[in-house]
Hints:
By secondary structure, this protein is mainly α. The protein has six helices and no strands. The mean pLDDT is 76.
Amino acid sequence: MFTSNEVKSQLVAQKIVFPPAGRPAITALPKADAAGPTSAKLAAQVETVFKGTTLRGMLLNACGFWQMGQIAWCGAIAAFAGAALLLILSPLEVAHLRRAPETAEAFPMVSHAVRVQTA
């Protein structure tokens, strides 16, 4: 676990510095900044960047693609389960076809060869 000195030393090593707390230049905003942006371009930038709409959009995008991945995962599991079931049933179908008489078949012309009588 990091202690405050370790964090501070790592930040200093990365050349990341923060001004001391309570510094008057930070706590007191100029009157022009406190009133809000005056230009329309700056107001639009403040609206999109600082109001959370950008972050909200990125999070919704990530959530949507995560949900699509979850649905695809469930579909893949269902497809593999179906493939495994068909893999098991295929040899059983061949065994049943060889043992069942021709009269017991629902479609005898499909499953057995047609016997042609010649003169």
